[in-house]
Amino acid sequence: MHALVFPKLTFLLLETLDFNCVMPDSGVLFNLVRGVVERRRAIKAPLTTLRINHCMISAKEAGKLKKVVPDFQWDHDEGEGEGKSEGEGVGEDDDDDEDDYDYEDDYEDISDPGLL
Length: 116
Prior knowledge:
Mean pLDDT: 75
Number of strands: 5
Strand order of the largest sheet: 1-4-5
Helix content: 10-25%
Order of helices and strands: EEEHEHE
Low-confidence stretches: 82-109
Distance between the termini: 68 Å
C-alpha cells in the first residue's frame, strides 16, 4: 500500500475540471477522485469536506461522492452539454448580489484632482 499523500488534508476544492477526462495510467478523473476519497475513508483519514465548482460532472457521479464525503457541496453545474449554450444556467439560482457590486467605488484615490 502506498503512503498517504497529505495525511492531514480534510478539505478539498475542485474547480473547472472535466471528470470524464482520461488521466494517464489512472483511467477517468472521476474514478481517481472517488478512489482516493474512499481509500482515505477506509484508512481512517477521511476527507470531510469536498467542494466541486464549475466542473463537468454528472449528477450521478456527484451523488456517489456525496455518499462518501460528510460535507459535500456541488454547484450542480454539469458542464456544457448538448442543447446548452455557453453561459446558460450559470448563476441562474445565485441570489447574492456580490457579482453585481462595483468594488472600484470602495476606495478613494488621493491622486484624483476632485479630492484635493
